[in-house]
Amino acid sequence: MSVPNPNAPPTLAPAPRRPVESRSGADEALKRCTRFVGLDVHKKTVVACVLDVNGHKVHGETFACTALELQRFAQAHLGSHAACVLEATSNTWAICAILSSQCGLLKVSNPLKTKAIAQASVKTDKVDAQVLAQLLRCDYLPGVWVADDDTRRLRQQVARRTALVQDRTGVKNRIHSHLAGELVAAPVDKLFEKAGSATGHLTFQMGFLK
Question: Could you tell me the pTM of the whole model?
């Protein structure tokens, strides 16, 4: 039996091997795609670029950003073998609702991260439809979480209510500011509550119609 050397450096136990993570469903769907479509979405138009598996451009067009035109393009150039990408913008989710069932993979990219990746990998500042398609083909695109329909509708409802409340507050502040500028004292402390509504017409006559 060997005697351990007290002067020998301590040996560390080998680190446990990290299990290999399986590829996500989106990655698997991307591997099955043979056509990659980039959509550069604007307010009134959409610029589309279609690439094959080798990165060669096979189709490009510009069409109106309407539901009918999006459906026409999807039927002609998408399908279960196609992966499609567009950047997150104001009308992204309405477009996703139309295209989600028309292609094998639909990805929404983060504009800020996409621009940084494009500058590093494709050496361009302009992220157009072809750059989006190339980044998608190479699996370089950072995607964003795509909410389901119920969550999307709830988000829209909350956002619209927040905007209305902000508009209401802004109008109240402008009225108070105008009255103060005209040296008109409000007849009640809380002008826009129940007590103030009874004398609101008098305040408007004194302040705005003076």
Answer: 0.63
